[in-house]
Structures are given as C-alpha cells and as structure tokens.
Amino acid sequence: MNDTNNKELSMQFPCVFPVKVMGLNSEAFSSAILSIFHKHLKPDEISCSEQRSRSNTYLSLTVTFTAQSKAQLDAIYQDLKDHELVLMTL
What pTM value is reported for the model? Predict the structure, then answer.
C-alpha cells in the first residue's frame, strides 16, 4: 500500500466508536465488560446495549463511546482480549 491508501484508511479522532463484546450470558460477564470500559472512560461517556442469543446462553454487549485516540482503542481491545470471560470482540 502507498501512503495515499494508508491515509484513506486512518481514522480521525475523536470519533464515535462501537465495540461489540460477546460472552456467556451472566451478570459476571456484563459487570466485567463495563468495568473494563470504566477503566478507560467515565461512566457517562459510554452507551451500552445488549442482545441475548435465542437460547439465552450468550450475551452480546455493544458499547459505544467517543474514542479519543488509537492508543485508547488499542488499550480497551487488549483488556477485553485478556479477560477470560470474553469469547469474541468486534
């Protein structure tokens, strides 16, 4: 890729950014995910919606916030990746 393509793919900060996190449907999962986001953001800076699987076994949380930098996003994704209750992030 040349520099022009790299510039086109880069994000402009700050920007509204949704993160989808999936795990088993449990209070522990929800609490853990919100704690991770609260580590990086103030509680009033996030919006969270949830979706349960048809069987009610899994829970998907979509947390939307205004990302301030790539470093902030990287830190959030790393904390989510490192948590044992997280099955997948998008």
Answer: 0.87
